[in-house]
Prior knowledge:
Layout: H1 5-17, E1 20-24, H2 31-35, E2 46-48, H3 52-57, H4 61-65, E3 70-75, H5 83-91, E4 98-104, H6 112-117, E5 122-126, H7 132-135, H8 140-146, H9 150-153, H10 158-179, H11 186-199, E6 202-203, H12 206-213, H13 217-229, E7 233-236, E8 252-255, H14 258-264, H15 270-275, H16 279-295, E9 299-304, E10 310-317, E11 320-326, H17 336-344, E12 349-354, E13 360-363, E14 366-370, H18 373-376
Parallel strand pairs: 1-4, 1-5, 2-3, 3-4, 11-12, 12-14
Antiparallel strand pairs: 6-8, 7-8, 9-10, 10-11, 13-14
Amino acid sequence: xxxxxxxxxxxxxxxxxxxxxxxxxxxxxxxxxxxxxxxxxxxxxxxxxxxxxxxxxxxxxxxxxxxxxxxxxxxxxxxxxxxxxxxxxxxxxxxxxxxxxxxxxxxxxxxxxxxxxxxxxxxxxxxxxxxxxxxxxxxxxxxxxxxxxxxxxxxxxxxxxxxxxxxxxxxxxxxxxxxxxxxxxxxxxxxxxxxxxxxxxxxxxxxxxxxxxxxxxxxxxxxxxxxxxxxxxxxxxxxxxxxxxxxxxxxxxxxxxxxxxxxxxxxxxxxxxxxxxxxxxxxxxxxxxxxxxxxxxxxxxxxxxxxxxxxxxxxxxxxxxxxxxxxxxxxxxxxxxxxxxxxxxxxxxxxxxxxxxxxxxxxxxxxxxxxxxxxxxxxxxxx
Length: 383
């Protein structure tokens, strides 16, 4: 089993400081496996809300939970949102006999009751599939190709991995979406999701997408908001300031897991990925997600002007602005756009992340660094 030590330590630290800790992230990213390392599934303190027995035990939630002591885990909390007010009451007890670790497959925006009922009592940890730190730099191409979902990444061969991703998408559309109360035809949402794969790494044109699918713009916005709240899609917002230049003010769209991106794009093998015209965009999305996982910034943006200057990723962390460019080339070189970004955005540094082995300077405050640097020295990226 691949160790997720950093996540485990973060959860432990949060549990010591908070009455309720929430782990949120997409389905099948490993939340349950991680939670069972704190409380075994056979314990009376473990509730899996996809298990009919656990649901029956929580028929009277206050009665079921109030006498438990120690750490209590409630998995797939989004299936019973009425539990949040109960947890608020239980978390306010003094002395506190139990702390709660709750797992959910939707963002706080979709689980509004968590923020309303548990405000000031809950600390949220966002979890994803495997990161490059967890699988090791030597597996970066495999992680890029298959994505970070554990059962896709660890599959015995490429066909098994692809089949898992196909089944995941089908289950997500036909079972998970209706469980959240959304009555959306699975074929319509699959067409929309596949269209987003085509837009991956590009500015999101909602009007064009709506025309392509033959739906209204309101419907297209509703679809993308849903996929974003369920961690399938990232809308990377633009950064713009008063620079006297016409700047892009529309977000970019990315499929967050490159394994799913490749399935939706019809990419089946490593050779097909390397030769695909969207290979560079796929790499860009992969590097963006891994950089965010490694650095945990306060805010993230991209930046672009209508005259052609652009920056793939702008990290805001501890009052600093750090730029990131993603280049799938053997040896990146300095471009006028990089110089413009450093000057106009007042960057502390600009990092050009590429798949090669060496770190070298391109100019003052501009360095080419290997993707493996995210594993070996992630903290140095934001120092």
